[in-house]
From TrEMBL, chain A:
Name of one Pfam family that matches: NHase_alpha
Residue ranges with Basic and acidic residues bias: 1-17
Family classification: Belongs to the nitrile hydratase subunit alpha family.
Record keyword Cell wall biogenesis/degradation present: no
Ranges for region Disordered: 1-25
Listed name of the protein: Nitrile hydratase
Binding site for Fe(3+): C119, C122, S123, C124
Lineage: Bacteria, Pseudomonadati, Pseudomonadota, Alphaproteobacteria, Rhodospirillales
Nitrile hydratase alpha/Thiocyanate hydrolase gamma domain location: 33-208
Automatic annotation (TrEMBL), chain B:
Superkingdom per UniProt: Bacteria
Record-linked SUPFAM superfamilies: Electron transport accessory proteins
Boundaries of every Nitrile hydratase beta subunit-like N-terminal domain copy: 13-106
Signal peptide positions on this chain: none
Lineage: Bacteria, Pseudomonadati, Pseudomonadota, Alphaproteobacteria, Rhodospirillales
Protein name: Nitrile hydratase beta subunit
Spans annotated as Disordered: 1-29
Length: 220, 118
């Protein structure tokens, strides 16, 4: 079970990448509008600084480890996987996640099928399960192109798809969120759910990564 | 891919980018800054308190941006613009007082020698 594992699956995903410049202080006029709105709302007691703090803490606490835990359960429990693919929103309640009133659909990658998620109109994303969406997910270039030339975009992410692998692109909406169920890597038969979850990356849950690699047991 | 037949179609809104021609994806990561979290939290709390009725109200403000502003503004800047639009539209705040608050923030910043006192 995953309840008492000492590490936090998902805590270290993708940290090896470069970071865009930190905008720690708002400087643009447009950002200052946000700062001004916040000041007005708090001054008027529409919400309190304490409520803001608690909200940020909750949002910042969500990370891809949640999605990874769902994937690990599906890999380990075929009956759960069947329920998950049939009705994602209902099945994840078994693990304590409730996205209602949103619909939630999980899409399974197979040898012949690769799924990838986008929100062309905005930035819809299962944040409770994956944390903050990456900047590229919200970028015009990703949103514009992945529905038109998914193989080219996936190649930029290092995903080389054989011609006989079908690609399906799923466009999220305000009411419906998607997550990918990546393929379980070979050689992981002996792993428990916590160790399996640790193999699952954020990008594999979005579909911009296809192959997961089992970690070297000696490195653990 | 170089063909962009779909760009011959009219632009129904700056947000509707699916299928348009665009450049390579910048895959670098971005840490959410504190002011961005604060805008995010503001949206959540305004929805929770019923000051805003739903996300559609906010998207409306984003989709009303001119294509130039949509391109120019960052993600959370667009959200800030949308919240401002909705709150003014609903009469929760007046445009004048928002302008005055922005001005006083700017003055506070230049008084602090440009160092960002929050």
């Amino acid at each position: 079970m995953t309840s008492d594992h000492p590490h936090d699956p998902g805590h270290d995903h993708d940290h090896a990448r470069t970071f865009q410049p930190d905008l720690s202080e708002p400087t643009s006029d447009a950002a200052l509008i946000g700062v001004a709105l916040r000041r007005l709302m708090i001054e008027r007691g529409v919400y309190s600084a304490e409520e803001e703090r608690a909200t940020i803490e909750r949002m910042a606490g969500a990370n891809p480890g949640n999605g990874a835990r769902i994937v690990a359960r599906a890999w380990s429990d075929p009956a759960f996987k069947e329920r998950l693919l049939a009705d994602g929103a209902e099945a994840i309640k078994e693990l304590g996640y409730d996205l209602s009133p949103l619909e939630f659909t999980v899409l399974e990658n197979t040898d012949r099928l690769h799924n990838v998620v986008v929100c062309t109109l905005c930035s819809c994303y299962p944040r409770a399960l994956l944390g903050q969406s990456p900047a590229w997910y919200k970028s015009k270039n990703y949103r514009a192109r992945v529905v038109r030339e998914p193989r080219a975009v996936l190649a930029e992410f290092g995903v080389a798809l054989a011609d006989d692998v079908e690609v399906r692109v799923h466009d999220s909406t305000a009411e419906l969120r998607y997550m990918i169920l990546p393929q379980r890597p070979a050689g992981t038969e002996g792993l428990d759910e916590a160790d399996l979850a640790a193999l699952v990356t954020r990008d594999s849950l979005i579909g911009t990564q296809r192959d997961l690699t089992p970690k070297d047991p000696a490195a653990r | 891919m170089s063909e962009n037949t779909q760009d011959a179609l009219p632009c129904w809104g700056p947000h509707d980018v699916g299928g348009r021609a665009a450049g390579p994806v910048d895959r670098s990561e971005h840490d959410t800054a504190q002011w961005e979290w604060q805008i995010d939290a503001m949206v959540r709390l305004l929805l929770q308190k019923g000051v805003l009725s739903d996300f559609a109200e906010l998207r409306d403000g984003i989709e009303k941006l001119t294509p130039e502003d949509y391109e120019r503004l960052g993600y959370y800047e667009r959200w800030a613009a949308a919240v401002a639009y909705a709150l003014i539209d609903k009469g929760v705040i007046a445009e004048d007082e928002l302008r005055a608050t922005v001005e006083s923030l700017k003055e506070g910043r230049s008084a602090a020698g440009g160092a960002g006192a929050a």
